[in-house]
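Researcher: Here's the sequence for the chain we discussed earlier.
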Amino acid sequence: MQDIILAFITAFSLTYFAVPSIIQIAKEKNLVDIPGGRHSHKEITPSLGGVGIFAGFVFSMVLWLDYQSVDGIQYLICSLLILFLVGLRDDIIPMSAKVKLFAQLLAASILVFKSGYYLDSFYGLFGVEELTKPVAFSFTLLLYIFLINAFNLIDGINGLSGSISLIISGVAGVWFYLVGDVSLSLVCFALAGSIVGFLRYNIFAATIFMGDTGSTILGLMCGFISIEMMAVNDILPLNEVYRIDSIPAVIVGIYIFPIFDTIRVFFIRVLRGNSPFNPDRRHIHHMLIDVGLSHFQATSLLVGVNFIFMFIVFRFQTIGAFYLMLLIFSLAASLAMILHRVNFKMGKKSKIDDTEEEEAIVN
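Model: Thanks. This is the structure I predict for it:
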């Protein structure tokens, strides 16, 4: 327990004290994000916060983790380093989507083929248990790529991607500790510490963004955490009080916002005849901003909703993975439809108000 606390404090402190220097250097070198287009911010803001997250997390993990207790952890660090370097380059000088996708695939492949961090079972979901290795490798690669991009896509307003990642790492860290896996708990709390240190400068009046450097690292780590949660849960005794039933659906419930919003946006883009990777303002967080919420209000609301889904999946985990998955996606779709309806009505009202204002000026 002591090492876990020290890992959190170390990661938090390094990130907290590193970010102001990163902000100063980014402004001096003009490494900033310019407002306009799909961006929701109005001030010129540095986008290198991921440097602080990476530094705090990796330094703390290297300092406090017992490497003999976690097989292949060096491959996780190698994968993170790849995403860090590519994300940093992209935040400074934008890169093509193909190059970034190749880097993500390379990082995921190291985890899958070298470290053995891959999903080898659906744990009863859709009646599927053990997966053949080709299917397991392919599905896990897709899972890593999906989550890396999902956390990148929700990083559109202040504090959102960091707050969701903090929830996931915190919940997973507590669960790993309760089931006796102190090493994985330490990894989760080191990540949480670096996120908290960063959020100090991002969640209110943001003075820095995490950029691709941060969001892709968080996506990879959340993929790693989810796979390890399922693997550890599978070897727990059936009478273990903290063993999770319907583990795949529970994981999806914990990750519901980035997973659902990414699937939803991709589906809408394809239906409209656009590329699923074509950026737009159809994300849920953009819709909340459009109905008049501030960044902090929208982030707080989405974090609150995510907590509700977490409560639901833990409360109803015994109904079976398929039915639990159906429940949470149905609920998520219903909430998204309500928000879309509110957004549509307010959009029509806004157009009417603009017309009346123009007529008043003319008259």
